[in-house]
Design goal:
The chain is α+β, with helices and mostly antiparallel strands and 138 residues long. It has one domain: Alpha-Beta Plaits, CATH 3.30.70. 36% of the residues lie in helices and 28% in strands. The chain has 3 helices and 8 strands; from the N terminus they run βββαββββαβα. The termini are far apart.
Amino acid sequence: MTQPEFPFKQVNIFLNQTNYVWGKGWVLSMEAYHEWEQEIRELITKLGMQLKKEKVVSNACDEGVNSIGESLYFHPMNFSGYIHKDNIESVLETIKLFKSKYWTYDHYNVRDMQTESNQTGWVGQIEKNKKDFLDIKK
């Protein structure tokens, strides 16, 4: 029996940038890093998301969440997370049009999770994102 399509997709959005080197981290000044961080927070707002309060570790990158459970993690090399299939194009368009001093859009890929065990994990993550969004609103 075929599983119903899961409406959320894992999206990875890759960037053109020269500010972050894999294995070394941020290679510009702390001032530039803080400017980049402000840009990301502006982008989170433009995407209709809220900045997630809790970070996995203290030096983790910012993450945005919204009321339907979508989330994006904003790493300097790529943005990744869970986006509803009906919203992927508008998220990509917002990111492509965003004027950043530190990065430009390069390309993206989407992973479709069709197995029941993977969907169960994803449903749990989507529900956690919704809760995180509500916690931000308090």
